[in-house]
Each structure stands twice: as structure tokens, then as C-alpha cells.
Amino acid sequence: MSIWLDDPRKFRTLTGQAHQVAMNMLRPISRTYDRAEHAYPKELDMLAAMIDGLAESGASEGAGAAGVRRDDTDQDAGGVKNGTNLASVMSIAEMCWGDVGLLLSMPRQGLGNSAIASVADDEQLRRFEGVWAGMAITEPGTGSDSANITTTAVLDGDEYVINGEKIYVTSGDRADHIVVWATLDRDLGRAAIKSFVVAKGTPGMRVDRLEHKLGIRASDTATIIFEDCRVPKENLLGSPEIDPKGGFAGAMATFDNTRPLVAAMAVGCATAALDLTRELLAGAGVVVDYDRPAHLQSAAAAKVLQMEADLEAARLLMLQAAWMADNRKPNSLEASMAKAKAGRVGSDITLCCVELCGTVGYSENELLEKWARDSKILDIFEGTQQIQQLIIARRVLGLSSAELK
Ligand SMILES: Cc1cc2nc3c(=O)[nH]c(=O)nc-3n(C[C@H](O)[C@H](O)[C@H](O)COP(=O)(O)OP(=O)(O)OC[C@H]3O[C@@H](n4cnc5c(N)ncnc54)[C@H](O)[C@@H]3O)c2cc1C
Question: Which backbone phi and psi does 373 adopt, to 5 degrees?
Fold first, then answer.
């Protein structure tokens, strides 16, 4: 038996529209841009313009990558709120039922946009409205250990001078802005790490190369070099003060908002795989009976039931983490739990669907093999499975990052 909680009524139009877009606009071009790696999916321009229109009219409920801002002003008086974080995870899951790589390529919906929405002050938020921003943290020598980044930002007059190399930047080529993490002083450790918004075309910043990848091939992944790249000092997001107690927490706050979004991508992709698998199995005479215990059904039906339960657990954790953000509750633990669960079961489910459907699952005639490739990254970026488990363990045990590594 499964428990299915209804989606909030006010988001039904939004999620319905997102599902239609996924089915009628993303799915039909999904295979094309999987094969044409690095080709720009030009169809997304029209889609992004439609999304902008919905945002202006208020019909999108502020959903999307930038919908993660924790806004004091629109808090329902005294009550709980189903807000833009919830709208974002629900609409992103629907879009990723269509295609994760294309969702990640959507103009003006980059992870850098979420970083700006999370950390920018009101003036910066206005100044960077409408930009398309990628997010550059990872370096050749630094991945999970993001506190060790070596890219530097040195104040010189009214500008910061940035030097360093960033790798694996999603939308790094196509986005018009990059949010780059750099340290103000390497001797001061994680507290000195800040994020900076750099506009494309700024002298000293260049895209060096693009990566060929296992999955999400519709999404461009770039190496970006910063050589004496000068940005106005007003482009530092948040406070320039180095506060040993809270400095890194400022930049890290982005993850509390973006991890539920990545969980949503995993939930959407796994839902797609499971929906198609159920259809293909039914065509082969395997029907899941929800009124009988799993152990009295065929092995395939029992497996579907188990995957559905896992997926529902991931979906509920995703909703909880986003809902907590909407209600301005600290959600680092829940954001990591959602990302860990959804990232892991997303990969497991999509791969198991390939297995259950046999040759049909493995062939390029269906999208099952593609979804198995696409979902793997969702258990890696924005913090790997192991890193989420580490964060969860620290929070549950009350240990610091120095005490539990
Ligand atoms: C397609 C793609 C898109 C990406 N997009 C972006 C982007 O937009 N911006 C960006 O900044 N980065 C991006 N990344 C980089 C991604 O965030 C990193 O790959 C990720 O953080 C892991 O870092 P790493 O690859 O250096 O692996 P490592 O940190 O070297 O980890 C290797 C393995 O060791 C494990 N491990 C590491 N530390 C521990 C520990 N303490 N305990 C237990 N296990 C541990 C990891 O979980 C992993 O399994 C992207 C990567 C890919 C592949």
C-alpha cells in the first residue's frame, strides 16, 4: 500500500503546464540533443521566453531556479506557506520527466541564478535580474572539499582581481554570467570564500574547453579560466566581511536551496523511467496489482512496487526540504537527505528499469538507457552521495566538519 499526498491545489495548473511542456516540447527533441552533444538546443529560446512571460504575469508562482529566494515579504500572515521553493521543485520534477539535460540548459534558469537568488542583497537582485548564470565552484584540485578552493580574489581599488581555473561548469559556455567561488585570503580558510558574479565578455575570463559526457549531453559543461579578471567590487554576493564563524555558511547557504532542486531532477527522471517501464511491462502481460502483497506477485511487479516506494520517499523528502525553505526553517539536514535519497534511488531506479525491460531497455529505440545515463550526475553534482551522508551524519551526531571528515 502506498500513501499518496495530494499536491497543493494552487500549484496544479503550474505542474500541469510543466508536464505538457515536458511531453510536447522536451521529449520530442530529447534524443536529437543527446546525439548532437554541444549543439545548442535552439527550441529552448522560445520556451524560455514563454517561461519569462509566465513569470511576469505571476502565473509561474515564481517557480524555477531563481524561485529559491527566502522572501520575508510574501510570508502568509502567521500561517504556513506553500511558496516558490515548493513550486520550483514540483515544476522542475515535471520538466525533468521530459529531459534533465534540456532543463539544465534552460536560459536564465542556471544554478548560478539560484546562487544569486539565495545570497544577493536587494540591489544585486535587481541588477542581476534576467541574467543567465552558471555556477563555478569545482577546480582541477578541488571537488567535494570545496573549502580548499585555490581561485583567488584580491581587492584592488574598486575591483576584485580573480585568478584561477574552474572545471565542469554547467552552462559555462552558454550562460551570460558566471557565479564564481574564490578566496579573499587563503590563510583564513573557509571563512574567506566568497562568490562573485562575472559577466561574460569581461576581459580575463575565457571558456577553455567543453567536456564529452556519459549523460545530460544536451547540457554544456565547460572549463573556465580566470586570468587577472577584474570585476566591480559590488559583484561580490553577500557580505565582503570575513567572519570566521559564518563566512563559509553564507556561500554554503546556496546548497540548502539548490539541493532540493537537484533532488527534484532525480525524482522527475526516475518517474519518467518508471512510467515507461510500467507501460512496457503491461504490454508484456506484467500488471502491478496494488491490492496484493508484493511477495505474492511476479518478481518484476514486486520490483516495481519497491521502486515506487523508494521514489515516493524521495519525493516526500524533496517536498519537505523545499517547504521548510519556504517557511524560512533551517533545512540543511533535510536538503541533504532529499538529495542523498533522490540521487541514489534515481540512479538505482533508472538502471533497474533498463534491466527489467531487457533489450528494449538497453536499446536506443526507447529513452530508458538515456535516463539511466542522465540520472547518474544527479547523485554527483551539488555534493556527492557520500558527501550528503557525511553532512547528515554530522548534523544528526552534532559533530563539526573537523570532528567528522
Ligand atoms: C556533468 C557535470 C556537471 C557539473 N556541474 C558543475 C557546476 O555547474 N559547477 C561546479 O562547480 N561543479 C560542477 N560539477 C562538479 C561536481 O560538483 C564535482 O564533480 C563533485 O563535487 C565531486 O567532486 P570531484 O569530481 O572532484 O570528486 P571528489 O571530490 O574527488 O570525489 C571522488 C569520490 O570520493 C568521494 N569522497 C570525497 N570525499 C569524501 C569523504 N570525505 N568521505 C567519503 N567519500 C568521499 C566522493 O563522494 C566521490 O565518490 C559537475 C560535474 C559533472 C560531472
Answer: -70, -45
